[in-house]
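Structure tokens please, single chain.
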Amino acid sequence: MEYQFLKFEHNEGITVLKISAPKSLNALNSTILKELDDFVGHLDAQTRVLIITGDGEKSFVAGADISEMALLNEPQGQEFGRLGAQVFRRIELLPIPVIAAVNGFALGGGCELAMACDIRIASSKAKFGQPEVGLGIIPGFSGTYRLPKLIGQGYAKEMIYTGKVIRADEALRIGLVNAVYEPEELMGKAMEMAAMMLKNAAIAIRLAKQSINEGYDLDADDAIALENKLFGQCFATKDQKEGMDAFLNKRPAAFTGE
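Here you go.
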């Protein structure tokens, strides 16, 4: 599939994906969401870390396309929300780490896209918000589900009910992002973080992500049992043998993903 609104590049196990619709500040319309769905579904097998960012200096993703949403009736609105939620869930369930490098506005659907990623780092110029109530709607791409889990119900309800937009430093304070960097440093820091992940065992990272994602909504006993099962699976891998042998013999590990 040829992409009209996506740009991407591969670099030794790291794929950088840019949402590129500069006229609308990278706002998400149905076409972009379908392109994202296709891209995620056909991600290069060599990709071990995915970095998602926005094209340009102003915006990560400024939201969903209001000009498209304004024309929707109730069933169409539900379908549009289902499409966005489905795509973001696919991103969340990717078996590799996904880093959101938030370079500018991350509003509405943009904030929801960032939240579907494993880790969020932000430019000091980034701004976050779920301003949907000011348009007569609610967050529709799983924002009411993920935001409380990330920052707690109190902060999430305040952001959603007021529709206020917060700066990167505030997003850092409440735990919405992991770190804030100057704009010119952002992508370098994202690549640096991805490179650190590449040094570790890919299977172990995949199983750790599975344990975190699937265990989060389980009760304590079930979550611990899941972790124990996945922990045990690690011992059937060559990477576990290599990692521990390298440690005991004081040499760098050479993981193969097996």
